[in-house]
Write a structure and sequence with these properties.
With about 240 residues, this protein is an all-alpha fold. About 80% of the residues lie in helices and about 0% in strands.
Length: about 240
């Protein structure tokens, strides 16, 4: 005898329900997905139609300006305090392992990472025909650095000769090279900029060697030779690719 489809098992469900429930679940999911897709399409369509209205377009541009350029001071403030908190927490974490001296290395590591990201964004914008002028950012960075280090200069015991040397150092070694690097970042790739930035360390050691008779160690000379060799290899590969 064939079993009655309406027969109920121990769990209160008929055999037919056991066979149809999986398909019903898949059907409900498909219907929900289609409903969500339709609702999203309607929402996006209405948003686009309302954005491109004559009166609404100015409000959108105003919000873009407010959220974008208007939030720069907030971004700077949040980035400043976030960096200080991360530095403080990293210091306490490194103290537990007796490696607090590595905090300076960790901060120094953030500099080339941030520089590479900055140069990459600048070059991509240049490739798309949108040159980003980051020269004012050099001035902003100098002002922030001055404000942070100003309390450490007390009680201002530097002589006029020392102040003159510091002014020459700030203009010749920091301001002008930073502006030139920002301008070159529009064309040169991030790896090339990073390698060129390492030349500052090499020339600094060379000037200390020639001017102050500070003889570098063999490890320093080997590192400088490695950087110069990497630059030469990079340029040779670039010449061959252009040829």
């Amino acid at each position: 005898m064939t079993p009655d489809p309406k027969t109920v098992n121990e769990n209160g469900r008929s055999p037919v329900r056991w066979l149809t429930d999986p398909f019903a679940a898949m059907g409900r999911k498909a219907i929900n997905w289609v409903n969500n897709l339709g609702a999203s399409t309607i929402f996006v369509s209405l948003a686009v139609l309302k954005i491109f209205r004559p009166k609404q377009l100015m409000k959108v541009l105003e919000q873009l300006w407010l959220i974008g350029a208007g939030s720069v001071p907030i971004i700077i403030l949040v980035g400043l305090f976030t960096g200080m908190v991360l530095g403080l927490q990293s210091y306490h974490a490194l103290v537990k392992f007796g490696s607090q001296g590595a905090l300076g290395t960790l901060v120094a590591l953030c500099v080339p990472v941030a520089g590479a990201a900055n140069w990459t964004i600048t070059q991509n914008a240049h490739d798309q025909g949108q040159d980003v002028d980051l020269v004012p950012a050099v001035l902003v960075g100098a002002v922030i650095s001055t404000l942070l280090t100003f309390p450490l200069a007390f009680p201002f015991q530097a002589s006029a000769h020392d102040v003159g040397l510091l002014a020459m150092l700030g203009a010749g070694q920091l301001a002008i090279p930073c502006v030139l690097s920002v301008l070159c970042a529009r064309i040169l790739k991030a790896p090339e900029m990073s390698l060129l930035a390492l030349l500052e360390v090499i020339f600094g050691i060379l000037l200390a060697w020639v001017g102050a008779n500070e003889v570098p160690t063999q490890a320093v000379l080997a590192g400088g030779a490695l950087v110069i060799g990497a630059l030469l290899v990079n340029e040779i590969i670039g010449w061959r690719q252009r040829a």
